[in-house]
Automatic annotation (TrEMBL):
Binding residue positions for Ca(2+) 2: T203, D254, T257, D262
Residues annotated as catalytic: H75 (proton acceptor)
Domain Plant heme peroxidase family profile, residue spans: 34-335
Organism: Eleusine coracana subsp. coracana
InterPro entries, per database record: Haem_peroxidase, Haem_peroxidase_sf, Peroxidase_pln, Peroxidases_AS, Peroxidases_heam-ligand_BS, Secretory_peroxidase
PANTHER family in alphabetical order: PEROXIDASE, PEROXIDASE 72-RELATED
Name used for this protein in its record: Peroxidase
Any one GO cellular component localisation term in the record: extracellular region
Signal peptide range in chain numbering: 1-25
Sequence positions that bind Ca(2+) 1: D76, V79, G81, D83, S85, E97
CDD domains for this protein: secretory_peroxidase
Length: 338
């Protein structure tokens, strides 16, 4: 009697949690299961070690790989959720997201994801999803180059589809206005703190000239270059980012410590040395985001705490769980490809 009352109560509480989770898009997956850090503890006990060791070797070889892997998780999660859709190549049924404006000639690290997948298929065939590999590799990358550690909720499944149009439209562009960037985060269930904290990912990695050239030169209809950019820094950037040509020349997103995950990205912004327009506008276009930029510049621990929390939130965007999707054998194609 008492026990049946208790179980009814538990069912009621559980239903409320599931409904609340569904309403907010997280932390419950679309299949009704929450992501949990222990997901592979029995089915593939060494999964996390395998990912970490391959990422560690790659980052030791080339520090930028940490940045490239972190960005892959972001570009995956913002397009129909964290479902590995980014990794699918063109095929008869797939129009690859790899050709989108944010991704083409820009995303890196895809071969390393393949390498991790091969190692995991060897250890535990058909078990660890490509979407979870991206989430783990992003966390390991951040930790390896000096950033915070967080437990990665797991149990994502891989999509059977990709969405090139969403990749073009839903991933923010470097010349988007701040309201547009905020709206694109809100579409994913992410707020202002997430916008500023996650932009702090630009404490590592490189950008092509083409992603910020607009800021360096006046153009027809636009009287002057971007005066929120420090003049001396702009002059330095113009050397290798000419008006035309040099599109793929590379520049650190954090000129102070390009391979270290720290809060100097925010200090740069305070002195007009954010590289992308989308970086600098966090200070110049809103008091609320400016306050966060200042807080993170002043307190690296606060930045690390918020960054880790926001990464978990981002990783919870519309995951496929339970019986949804599949665990791909090869991250580049769905299992029944033809
Ligand atoms: C807030 C909106 C954002 C915009 C407009 C933006 C835009 C960009 C652009 C234009 C680049 C340079 C790409 C190139 O020229 O090849 C870049 C690089 C990068 N982005 Fe973002 N990004 C944003 C948010 C994020 C977030 C949320 C993350 C991760 C949590 C992230 C991680 C990175 C990393 C690590 C790089 C360097 C990649 C490398 O060196 O391979 N970005 N981003
Ligand atoms: C995929 O195929 C489309 C259509 O043929 C093509 O336009 C696009 O460039 C291809 N994408 C990639 C990443 O190869
Ligand atoms: C990607 O960039 C390459 C090289 O610049 C270009 O040839 C190709 O058309 C681009 N692909 C798409 C889908 O835009
Ligand atoms: C942003 O950059 C893209 C690509 O270079 C360009 O086509 C677009 O016109 C730019 N938008 C604004 C508002 O400057
Ligand atoms: C654009 O910059 C060039 C070179 O600095 C300068 O000569 C020209 O007057 C500028 N045009 C406008 C409209 O500001």
């Amino acid at each position: 009697m008492a026990s049946s009352m208790i179980s009814s109560l538990l069912v009621a509480v559980f239903s409320v949690l599931v409904l609340a989770g569904a309403a907010h898009g997280h932390p419950w997956g679309g299949g009704g299961f929450p992501l949990i850090p222990q997901f592979y503890d029995h089915s593939c006990p060494h999964a996390k070690d395998i990912v970490r060791s391959i990422v560690a070797t790659a980052v030791a070889r080339e520090a930028r790989m940490a940045a490239s892997l972190l960005r892959l998780h972001f570009h995956d999660c913002f397009v129909q959720g964290c479902d590995g859709s980014l990794l699918l190549d063109n095929s008869t049924s797939i129009l690859s997201e790899k050709g989108s404006n944010p991704n083409n000639n820009s995303i890196r690290g895809l071969e390393l994801i393949d390498e991790i997948k091969v190692a995991l298929e060897h250890a535990c065939p058909g078990t660890v999803s490509c979407a979870d590999i991206l989430a783990l590799a992003a966390r390991d990358s951040v930790t390896l180059v000096g950033g915070p550690y967080w437990d990665v909720p797991l149990g994502r499944r891989d999509s059977l589809t990709a969405n090139l149009q969403a990749s073009n439209n839903d991933i923010p562009a470097p010349n988007n206005t701040l309201p547009t960037i905020i709206a694109k985060f809100r579409n994913q269930g992410l707020g202002l703190v997430d916008v500023v904290a996650l932009s702090g990912a630009h404490t590592i990695g490189l950008s092509r000239c083409t992603s910020f050239r607009q800021r360096l030169y006046n153009q027809s209809g636009n009287a002057a270059p971007d005066f929120t950019l420090d003049a001396a820094y702009a002059g330095y950037l113009r050397h290798d980012c000419p008006r035309s040509g040099g599109d793929n020349n590379l520049f650190p997103l954090d000129l102070a410590t390009p391979t270290k995950f720290d809060n100097l990205y925010f200090k740069n912004i305070l002195v007009g040395k954010g590289l992308l327009n989308s970086d600098q506008v966090l200070l110049t276009q809103s008091g609320e985001t400016a306050a966060l930029v200042k807080a993170y510049a002043a307190d690296v621990d606060l930045f690390f705490k918020h960054f880790a929390e926001s990464m978990v939130k981002m990783g919870n965007i519309k995951p496929l769980t339970g019986g949804q999707g599949e665990v791909r054998n090869n991250c580049r194609r769905i299992n029944n490809h033809y």
